[in-house]
Amino acid sequence: MLRPPQNIRAALLSSGKDQFLAYGFEKASLRTICKNAGLTTGAFYNHFSGKEDLFSSLVEPMIHGFRKMYQEVISQELADLTTGVENELTSITYAISHKDEFRLLFECSKGTKFEGFKEYLIQEVFYPSYQEVFDRYAGRHVDPALVQIILHMKFEEYMELIYGGYTMNEVKKLITQLTVFSEAGFHRLLEDINKEN
Amino acid sequence: MLRPPQNIRAALLSSGKDQFLAYGFEKASLRTICKNAGLTTGAFYNHFSGKEDLFSSLVEPMIHGFRKMYQEVISQELADLTTGVENELTSITYAISHKDEFRLLFECSKGTKFEGFKEYLIQEVFYPSYQEVFDRYAGRHVDPALVQIILHMKFEEYMELIYGGYTMNEVKKLITQLTVFSEAGFHRLLEDINKEN
Amino acid sequence: MLRPPQNIRAALLSSGKDQFLAYGFEKASLRTICKNAGLTTGAFYNHFSGKEDLFSSLVEPMIHGFRKMYQEVISQELADLTTGVENELTSITYAISHKDEFRLLFECSKGTKFEGFKEYLIQEVFYPSYQEVFDRYAGRHVDPALVQIILHMKFEEYMELIYGGYTMNEVKKLITQLTVFSEAGFHRLLEDINKEN
Amino acid sequence: MLRPPQNIRAALLSSGKDQFLAYGFEKASLRTICKNAGLTTGAFYNHFSGKEDLFSSLVEPMIHGFRKMYQEVISQELADLTTGVENELTSITYAISHKDEFRLLFECSKGTKFEGFKEYLIQEVFYPSYQEVFDRYAGRHVDPALVQIILHMKFEEYMELIYGGYTMNEVKKLITQLTVFSEAGFHRLLEDINKEN
DNA sequence: AATGAATGAGGGTTCATTCAT
DNA sequence: TATGAATGAACCCTCATTCAT
C-alpha cells in the first residue's frame, strides 16, 4: 500500500525470477510468486498482463541488450580478426552480469514463446558465421557436422564461464587459455583434413 | 485384457517414454500415458507404484548398463592410455543405442530423484579421472576450472554425437577428428601453461 | 481530464451500451466499458454508483418516454377505435428511434432489475387493454389463452418491424398490410367462435 | 458411491438443466451444478468433457429427434396440403414434451455453439418453405419482409403454445382457432396485394 | 474528479492418486 | 487385475468494487 509502485513491480520480477529459476515457467506457481511478493493474485494483473508477460519482462530487456552488444562485437570482428579474445570477453561479461536471465532463457522457458531460443541462437545467429570462418580458414567447405559439434562445445564453454562463478580476472585468464586450446585444435584439425585429400 | 502382462508393462513404458520426452516428467500426464497404452489410470497402479516409478523403470536399467560398461572402459583406459578413441566409440555406441533414455535422464527428469543426474555424472564419475589424466599429462596440478570447462565441452561433444542423428560411420569419423582437435588443443595448452611458470 | 463532465458521462453511456448489447449485462466487463470510454474503473464510480446504475441510466429515460407516449396513444385509441394504424405507427416510430435501448431492455437485461420487463410490459400494460378490446369486439369474454397468444404474436410483429432495419416508408406499408392480416384473421375467428355456441 | 453410474449422469444432466435454465450457459456455475448433483467438480470430468459437453448432452438428442420428426412432417405436408393442423400438432406435441430443452436452446445457449440456433432454424429451415408457400398461394413473389414478419409471428405462436402450460386438448383447440386466424388473415392479405397492382 | 493498486471470491479445468466394485 | 468414479487441491485468470493518494 505504501510501497511505491516501482517496488511492487520489482518485487514481482524478483519473486518471479526465483520461482521460474527454481521450477521452470510452467511449474512455477503464480500464487507463490505473488505471495512472496506480498500481494494477491488479483493484484498481480494490475502490473502484468499474465504469467508469460512477467516472464517476458524478465528476459526481453536482456535479449535486446545482448542483440545490441552482439552486433557491435560482430562488426568489430569482421573488421579486425585479431580482436577475438577481447570480444569474447565483452560477450561473456555481458552474459555474466545477466546470468539469471540467461538461465531463464535457456533452461526455464519451456511453455513460453522463448522455448526454442537456445537452439535458435546457435543455429541462426552463431552457426552461419561459424561455418563461414571455418570455411575461410580451411580454404574449403568444412563438414557442417564438425562445425556444429565444435560450435556446441564452444557454447558450452561459454555456459561454464558464465555459471562457474568465476571472478572477472579468472574468466579473462580462462578465456585466454581456452582460446589457445581451441585455436591449436582447430589448426591441427584443418591440417589433417587437408592432408586427407 | 487378454494381453500378457509383459505387453502391458511394455506398452506403459513405451507410452511413458513418449510423454516424458515430449513434456518432461512433471508436465507429462499420467492419464494420457495410460490412455495411449490402452488402459485406465487405476490399472496403471497394478504395474507401477506411481509416476516416478514408471520414470525410474525407463531409466534405471540404462544407468546400470552404462555403469557396467563404463567401468570396463575406464579400467582399460587406465591400463593402456592409447585406447582412447576406441573406448570413446564404445561409450558413444552404447549411448546412441539408448538415446531416448539418455535424453530422459538429462532433459526430462526435473521433478524426479534423477534431477541432478547430469551434474552428478560429470562431477562424480567423469571429473575425478579427468583431472587425474590432465595432471598426469601435465606433470603438475592443472587448474580445476580449466579441467571443468574442457570436461563440460567434451560432454557436450558427446551429446551432439549422440543426438546429431549420425550414422555409426559418421560418428567414427567425427570422433577421430574431434580427438585430433582435443588432443592438439590439450597439448598446446599444457605447453603454454608450463612456459608461464 | 479536460473533457467537460457531460462528455465523460456520455462516453460511458455509449461504451456501456456497446458492451451490454454485445455481451449482456452480466457478461459485459466494466473494465472494458471504462477502457473504451477512456477512463479508469475507479473514475467510473464518480459518475455512476455501479454497473447496474449505468444500465438503468441507459434504459430508464426511454422507459419514461415510452410510458408517456403510450398513455397518449391508448387514450386516443379508447376515444376513437379507428385510429389503429396511426397509433401503431407512433409507437413503432418511437421504438425504432430507441432501438438499442429496447434491445437492452428485452435481450440484455438479465441480472438487472429490468430482467422481467418484457413480460411485465406484455402482461401489465398491453394485456388488459387487449383483452378488453377483444371482449368488446366479440361481445363476449374471449378465451384469455387466445388473447395471450395473439398478443404475443403482435408483440413479435413489432419486434420485427423495429429490428428489421426497414425504412419508415417500408414500416408504414408493412403495418398497413399486417393490420389487414390481423383484422381479417380476428374477425373470422370471432365469427367462428360465435358460431360454435 | 453406491449410486449406479447412470444416476450420476442423470443427476448432472438434471442439475445442469436447472442451472442453465436459471442463469444461462455462461453464468451457470459448474461448481454449483456439481454440488447440487452431489459430487465434486473433479468428478464431473469423469462424466462429461466440460461445461459445453454437458450442455450439448442436454440439447442434442432433442435436436436430432426434432429433425427426424420434422422431416416426416414436411414430407407429409408436401404430399397432402390438407394435413396442416395435424402436422402442427405433431410438432407442438414434440416441442411441449421437450419444453426445457427448447428453452435451453433458444434462451440459454449464449456462449455455446448453439448460440444462433433460433435464427438458424427460422432462416434456414422454416423461411425457405414459408416463402415458397406464400408465393405459390399468391401466384406471385410476396414481399420477403412480409413473409419474415409473419413467420416470426408464427414462431412466437408456437412458443406460446409450448410455454403456456396448456393441456393437450387446449393446445388442439387453440391451434385450430389460430389456424383460422392465420389463414383468414393470409387470404385477405393476398387479395389486397393482388388488388393493388 | 481521477488514479490505479488491492481485494477476495469466483470462474472452468487438470492433476496424481485411491479404492469399492 | 481391471475399472472408472471420486477426491481435493491446485492451476491461471477475471470480476465489480473500494479507497488512499
What features would you highlight for this structure?
homotetramer; 197 residues; mainly alpha; Arc Repressor Mutant, subunit A; Tetracycline Repressor, domain 2; 2 domains; 9 helices; elongated; DNA-binding
Write a concise synopsis of the structure shown.
Four copies of one chain form a homotetramer. The longest helix of chain A is centred in the N-terminal third of the chain and has 29 residues, at 51-79.
What does the secondary structure layout of this molecule look like, with pairings?
The structure is a homotetramer of 197-residue chains.
Chain A: H1 5-27, H2 30-37, H3 41-44, H4 51-79, H5 84-97, H6 99-107, H7 117-138, H8 144-163, H9 168-196
Helix pairs in contact in A: 1-2, 1-4, 1-6, 4-5, 4-6, 5-8, 5-9, 7-8
Chain A binds a DNA duplex (21 and 21 nucleotides) through residues 1-2, 5, 8, 29-31, 39-47, 50-51.
Description:
Chain A has nine helices and no strands. By secondary structure, chain A is mostly helical. The longest helix of chain A has 29 residues. The N and C termini of chain A lie far apart (74 Å). The mean pLDDT of chain A is 90. Chains in contact: A-B, C-D. At the A-B interface, helix 1, helix 8 and helix 9 of A face helix 1, helix 8 and helix 9 of B. Chain A binds a DNA duplex (21 and 21 nucleotides) through helix 3.
